[in-house]
Amino acid sequence: MLRRNLLGSLFETMKCAPPLRGPRAGYFPNVVLTSHENERARFYDDLLRGKTVIVNFMYTTCEGRCPLYTSNLLKVQRLLGDRAGREVHMYSFTLDPVVDTPRVLRNYADAQGVGPGWRFFTGKPEDMELLRRKLGFTENNPELDRQKSFHTGLIRYGNEQLDRWAACPALADPAKIVRHLSWLDIKPCEEVVA
Amino acid sequence: MIQRRDLLTWGSMAGASSLAPRRANAQLCAHEPLAFPGSPRTTPWLSTLPIPPLIQPVQRLDPAPVPGNHQRYSEFEPKLFYDVNVQAITHRFHPELPPTPIWGYGGMVPGPTFHARYGEPVLVRFRNSLPASHVGFGLPSIATHLHNGHTASESDGYPSDFADPGHFRDHHYANRPAGDDPAEIMSTLWYHDHREDFTAQNVVRGLTGFYLLFDDLDTGNERDTNPKAFRLPAGAYDVPLIFHDRAFNADGTMAYDVFNTAGILGDRYTVNNAIQPRFEVARRKYRFRLLNGGPSRFYHFALSNGERMVQLSNDGNMLPHPIAVSGVTLSPAERADVIIDFSNARRGDQIFLLNQLEQTAGEGPTGHLMLPGDPVLRFDVASNDTADPSRIPETLRPLPRIDMREVKQERLWKFDYLNSNWLVNGKLFDTARIDAMIKRGSAEVWTFRNEGTTWSHPIHIHFEEFQILEFNGRRPGPGDVNRARKDTVRLGPNDEIKIFMRFRDFLGRYVMHCHNVLHEDHSMMIRWDVVP
Questions:
Q1: DSSP state of A108
Q2: What three-state secondary structure class fits A87?
Q3: Is the ipTM of this complex over 0.90?
Q4: pLDDT band at residue A17, thresholds of 50, 70 and 90?
Q5: In this predicted structure, what is the pLDDT of residue B26?
Q6: Per the CATH hierarchy, to which homologous superfamily does domain B67-214 belong?
Q7: How far is CA A11 from CA A15, A49, B206, B225, in A?
Q8: Which of A135, A150, A173 has its CB closest to that of B259?
Q9: CATH 2.60.40.420 describes domain B4-46+234-381
Q10: Chain B stretch 259-278, residues whose beta carbon is closer than 8 A to a beta carbon of chain A
Q11: Which fold is adopted by the domain B404-531?
């Protein structure tokens, strides 16, 4: 009986006042990362908690399709305008942390013309690997999983508070990606139909 | 890793009769998401099989439907109106698990069952009463697809035709066979969510239900005096069964790996959303409507007593003749109506419906059979006997004629994977891009080619049923259950399948996609339009 009441009341609460910490909080590692601007940040506490994010994995020496992914995300950033970095946080995590030092990431971001609101991160190789696995940029086939370029084609977008997550191709139409982000918004309580 | 040979050996030694105690709490061989510890223990056969209730029509809808929003509304003026409120509620999947938040059509999972009739058009209003600030997997925004109704585009649940919380969409179902051809009459359909990018999450959250169609032959009356009537088992002996594999957290809530784009497997089988239930049966014939509700697992069903079933339909479409089968393979969204005859069983017998298909990753099955298999549902043969006026007719429905002179276009669709994206002809799905323009009233031949060596794709086309011309170069012969009308076809590694399909009656946009809904949500879909 008690359990039922607790569940019931939790459910009611969720309708109107999402908690600051999403229900998946304990799942995300709180590893310390360094940005291309040489700022340190904890993954969960500083980058994810309570935020709406776009996340991808990349590495600066990636050729082939990678430059297309980056230029597509640049278009997304431009479409977001000043919402980028305020309402929507754009994060790129390197798959090659040994090569991609903060300085290398900085040079890459500058060369691409990346503006504020989009940050690149590196860290200890084992931390970056944990992050990659936790965020599902993986292949079931171990041979494919070892190939860095296989993890560059997807963008995850999510609202941590609502634990609302989806993914779309890194080459999806930028306007479409921005439209998808609008699905993550929390609507005011008045609009909720009982 | 258990090898196939070991499984076979173990299976033949174990024997079917010792199945239940040995596999009392069967764990599926699931590819576990990172750090997923497995569902809490659940004792099998504690639940009785839930049967979704029939939906009742309403007198009127307020506001009234707008006829101008629908193609051919006045020709097929709705005779019945239904109001389906999509709600967040709680549901118990098992007596040992607490109630857990789910979404249900009409506030139940599965949603209420429709009994519709050909010649009796209906209008169904799907109202989104989900909480906008829902927390957890699932997007509280709905697009409802009647799989695989011959439905006008605006009522078909196109992925971007969604209703957000507080809004509704009206769906007009003409209940008229394609091309007015009685050979195109369908039987077992289901309705489920089709929301762009979130179909998998919303379906796993609970948005499924049955839509059964009856006509002058398949009347739903086993005592029908019309000599042409099929008189298949009906009423309490006509039982829809939707299968899912699910996973649960330690607190009993549903687990869902939101970071998976390859395919999601659970470690608990559910039937009509009860974990491993039991169903008391009389010593007579039953019609079971088997539906693989996904999201990603393929099944091969067989009976533990080694008895055969009689397969009546493929994807809910009656076969030309019933076919006795030792098992039924279903990929996500495939259906089969089967007769199971318990009249030779002994009172008190326990017979298990088994899944024998091994699958260890979301991309598709290994192709190996697990013997004896995982018990999914237990039939308990009752001690009292019941009359059985039902019968299995010798002939069911003839197949529609294939006339290659109607074919105006042949198309090749290649299914592939690149950098975490599931692709069709190298392209990502875009709701606004038309990938094929098809002239209304024409027929086309489509070839599906799987470019992958390890993954399988259940390929589904909306709107009309197709027939398989060639499966890896061979035409299914008489007596093959795939010599049938289908809407979903299993495209295994390296397979190539050629189909014939007509496009009649309505105009507008439709989709073809992989029905492993994780692949569907991650771009393995095309848009095609029927044009004048």
A1: H
A2: coil
A3: no
A4: low
A5: 33
A6: Cupredoxins -  blue copper proteins (2.60.40.420)
A7: 7, 21, 17, 52
A8: A135
A9: yes
A10: 259-262
A11: Immunoglobulin-like (2.60.40)
